[in-house]
């Protein structure tokens, strides 16, 4: 086989550039030359058809190159034919003269792989041709005839070998990033090519014959859609994809990559507008097996708002930097402009390449085996949706948190549990259930009142008794209230337990006794009992009534209740100023007693209402009224507490200033 | 102007120390180390008061004939120490304060990085560049 730098046809000397030479050699080999160097006509015809030139042009080419005359395609004729086809594709007439100059490589549409349709006809690249060859060779097992091709004296040996793994750097052992940088120029998206490329990369330069076998090995892999891919190949396929972008810029995110990053982001955080917390991102990016200082540097580059969390653009940036780093690109010192979160890709259309997402997802699954044992646990939770109890609890926690965080940044402690957000069908349900469960303590107006009303009917209303617990609770009122509530709880334990379980829970809960007083007034039937309660409190509250009224007038926007209710409210609010000190000492008693007092009086209330049997409408109205009253009470108490806080704060400031004066003056 | 900048952890070991290499870094390390005593004295003096009462900027810790040492402590007991050449008398207190503020900002940025374990030496390049951008710095 004449692999000289020139191909002669009837004496015409046509010079081939190195790239062309390599390409043509590969094509030549593809066409299955027999022992004498003649090419198989079928293969040649196939190749010619792949060039997508009109038949007439092909005839012309065949004629000009001399094959027609000879009756077969020898090496020289083949080369000339290739050059003529290149010229034809470039628009030049099919003449020998036109091939004298520098021409782009002829473009052959792949006969086996439709992905090659995307190949641009880059004049500068020598990879477009190898890629086609790669696909072609992919379909055809590499015969040993390739071996003679490989024995090329110059470095093109490696390049030729690079055809079967088309994108292997091959040339020089130190695979510098510059070698990688040349690849994006090809802008190839052939999955098979990438696969082959990485096999070449993996094999490394040294063993050429070994690489020879690898193409055949990988050609087998080409046909099935990669369920059996090794981790390295899949990872590098992803990395290969990451390299490729349409504008030759390694720092630009392509659509495929963007789509992939979106999927990854969703796996960590279902809402694209929310943040990924630092620990979560750390665990995720640690799976990429990059050293920690580099990951740290990547984080610094990508977290532009320096908040310790990643927004979606920041996440894309970080992911892209990681991918680039894995490809061998050195990390920049500053963030490239194309990776800034504010950068908008012109004309970005989220293309759904199905064949792209599948191998990309393989990346993640295949990362799992390589991940840390520690991360394996979390990753298992993440990737495999376990509908176990633990995960449900996690989602419950997770769903609970968003309620509390209006900024939609879940609690950092909950963030690792967010991994289980893959339970997407479960989580909405969980969310609803949990919202109900959580809102129940908050909106105690909804069910609690009904429960309370039911409870009220059962217990009698004994006079308040001094409570033996909380000896420091000097106020008899509290004790009485507690006693009332305790008595109220005994008859109706089942409903009260549900309530008392969470009624004391709200920490800043105001004293419920005002509510009880109000409730008692509403039906008007339990006035005797409530009066007893009132009278018990009366002694303590009356003196603070004025103070309460003054505080109430202080800009409260609650609706005015009936005067008796107001009095009772005020009286009970006298609790609050009455013991500012005591509250500090035993807040729990105070908070415990008011809520417990509430159900009791509410129970009495319901009893009265249910005497006229089906007065549901009335119940609802009373419930509404009770809610309003409770709101009013709470607002008043809130304002009052705030005033107290101000007072205390003022005291504190004065004390501190005094302390400052007394302190030895230090030089500042 | 500032010849040495040091970030000292809560346990009084340095997280980051960087000095102009002209005068022997060991000397500055020693100075910073001794200044820690002064810092401790200052922050323990106000220990009885609440933490928010204490000023973060500690001011001039002690002057020597060659240089002055300024200190700053955060609420998490991380200390910043800046050693300034005494010949720069034009360096005002406000400038020192602004230097500390920038130092604090870059330190919090480092802390925000989830890959940084608190207590590790600070190897962040961003942090280093922030140091160089301090006014009149190396």
TrEMBL record, chain A:
PROSITE patterns: EF_HAND_1 (PS00018), EF_HAND_2 (PS50222), EH (PS50031)
Coiled-coil residue windows: none
Pfam families: EH (PF12763)
Ranges of compositional bias, category Polar residues: 381-392, 472-498, 526-537
Biased composition (Basic and acidic residues): 144-161, 393-417
A molecular-function term among this protein's GO annotations: calcium ion binding
Chain positions covered by the region annotation Disordered: 119-186, 377-617
The protein's name in its UniProt record: RALBP1 associated Eps domain containing 2
Organism: Cyprinus carpio carpio
From TrEMBL, chain B:
CDD domains recorded: TRAPPC2L
Pfam families assigned: Sedlin_N
Keyword tags: ER-Golgi transport, Transport
Biological process annotations from GO: endoplasmic reticulum to Golgi vesicle-mediated transport
Subcellular location: Cytoplasm, Perinuclear region
GO cellular component terms, semicolon-separated: perinuclear region of cytoplasm
Family: Belongs to the TRAPP small subunits family. Sedlin subfamily.
This protein's name: Trafficking protein particle complex subunit 2-like protein
Organism of derivation: Cyprinus carpio carpio
Taxonomic lineage: Eukaryota, Metazoa, Chordata, Craniata, Vertebrata
């Amino acid at each position: 086989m004449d692999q000289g730098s020139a191909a002669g046809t009837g004496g015409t000397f046509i010079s081939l550039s190195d790239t062309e030479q390599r390409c043509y050699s590969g094509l030549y080999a593809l066409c299955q030359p027999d022992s004498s160097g003649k090419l198989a006509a079928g293969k040649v015809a196939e190749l010619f058809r792949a060039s997508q030139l009109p038949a007439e042009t092909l005839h012309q080419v065949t004629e000009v190159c001399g094959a027609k005359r000879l009756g077969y395609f020898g090496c020289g004729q083949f080369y000339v034919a290739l050059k003529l086809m290149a010229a034809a594709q470039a628009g030049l007439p099919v003449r020998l003269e036109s091939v004298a100059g520098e021409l782009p490589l002829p473009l052959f549409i792949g006969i086996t792989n439709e992905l090659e349709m995307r190949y641009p006809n880059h004049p500068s690249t020598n990879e477009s041709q190898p890629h086609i060859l790669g696909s072609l060779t992919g379909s055809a097992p590499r015969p040993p005839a390739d071996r003679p091709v490989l024995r090329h004296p110059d470095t093109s040996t490696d390049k030729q070998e690079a055809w079967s793994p088309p994108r292997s750097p091959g040339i020089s052992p130190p695979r510098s990033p510059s070698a990688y940088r040349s690849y994006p120029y090809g802008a190839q998206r052939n999955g098979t090519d990438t696969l082959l490329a990485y096999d070449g990369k993996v094999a490394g330069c040294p063993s050429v014959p070994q690489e020879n076998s690898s193409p055949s090995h990988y050609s087998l892999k080409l046909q099935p859609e990669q369920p059996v891919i090794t981790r390295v190949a899949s990872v590098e396929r992803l990395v290969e994809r990451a390299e490729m972008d349409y504008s030759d810029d390694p720092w630009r995110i392509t659509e495929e990559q963007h789509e992939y990053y979106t999927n990854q982001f969703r796996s960590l955080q279902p809402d694209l507008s929310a943040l990924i917390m630092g620990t979560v991102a750390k665990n995720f990016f640690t799976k990429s097996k990059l050293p920690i200082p580099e990951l740290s540097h990547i984080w610094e580059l990508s977290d532009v708002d320096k908040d310790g969390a990643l927004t979606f653009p920041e996440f894309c940036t970080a992911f892209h930097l990681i991918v680039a780093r894995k490809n061998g690109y050195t990390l920049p010192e500053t963030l490239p402009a194309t990776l800034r979160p504010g950068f908008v890709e012109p004309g970005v259309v989220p293309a759904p390449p199905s064949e792209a997402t599948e191998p990309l997802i393989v990346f993640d699954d295949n990362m799992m085996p390589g991940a840390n044992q520690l991360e394996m646990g979390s990753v298992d939770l993440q990737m495999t949706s376990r509908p176990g109890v633990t995960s449900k609890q996690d989602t419950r926690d997770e769903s609970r948190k968003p309620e509390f965080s209006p900024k939609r940044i879940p609690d950092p402690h909950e963030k690792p549990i967010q991994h289980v957000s893959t339970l997407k069908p479960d989580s909405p349900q969980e969310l609803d259930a949990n919202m109900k469960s959580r809102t129940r303590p908050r909106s105690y107006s909804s069910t609690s009142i009904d429960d309370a009303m039911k409870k009220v009917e059962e217990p009698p209303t004994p006079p308040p008794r001094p409570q033996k617990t909380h000896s420091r609770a000097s106020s008899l009122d509290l004790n009485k209230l507690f006693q009332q509530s305790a008595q109220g709880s005994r008859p109706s334990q089942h409903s009260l337990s549900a309530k008392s379980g969470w009624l004391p829970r709200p920490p800043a809960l105001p004293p419920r006794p005002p509510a009880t007083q109000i409730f008692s007034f509403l039906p008007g039937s339990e006035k005797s009992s409530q009066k007893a309660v009132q009278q018990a409190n009366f002694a303590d509250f009356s003196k603070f009534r004025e103070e309460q009224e003054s505080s109430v007038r202080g800009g409260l926007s609650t609706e005015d209740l009936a005067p008796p209710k107001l009095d009772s409210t005020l009286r009970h609010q006298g609790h609050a100023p009455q013991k500012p000190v005591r509250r500090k000492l035993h807040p729990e008693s105070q908070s415990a007693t008011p809520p417990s007092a509430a159900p009791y009086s509410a129970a009495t209330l319901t009893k009265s209402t249910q005497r006229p049997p089906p007065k549901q409408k009335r119940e609802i109205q009373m419930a509404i009224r009770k809610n309003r009253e409770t709101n009013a009470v709470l607002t008043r108490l809130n304002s009052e507490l705030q005033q107290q806080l101000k007072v205390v704060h003022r005291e504190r400031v004065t004390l501190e200033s005094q302390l400052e004066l007394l302190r030895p003056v230090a030089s500042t | 102007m500032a010849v040495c900048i040091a970030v000292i952890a809560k346990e009084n070991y340095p997280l980051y120390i960087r000095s102009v290499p002209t005068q022997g870094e060991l000397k500055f390390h020693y100075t910073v180390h001794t200044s820690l005593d002064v810092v401790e004295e200052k922050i323990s003096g106000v220990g009885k008061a609440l933490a928010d009462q204490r000023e973060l900027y500690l001011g001039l810790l002690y002057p020597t004939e060659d240089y002055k040492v300024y200190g700053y402590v955060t609420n998490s007991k991380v200390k910043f120490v800046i050693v300034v050449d005494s010949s720069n008398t034009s360096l005002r207190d406000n400038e020192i304060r602004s230097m500390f503020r920038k130092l604090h900002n870059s330190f919090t940025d480092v802390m925000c990085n989830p890959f940084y374990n608190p207590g590790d030496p600070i190897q962040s390049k961003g942090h280093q560049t922030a140091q160089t951008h301090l006014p009149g710095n190396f």
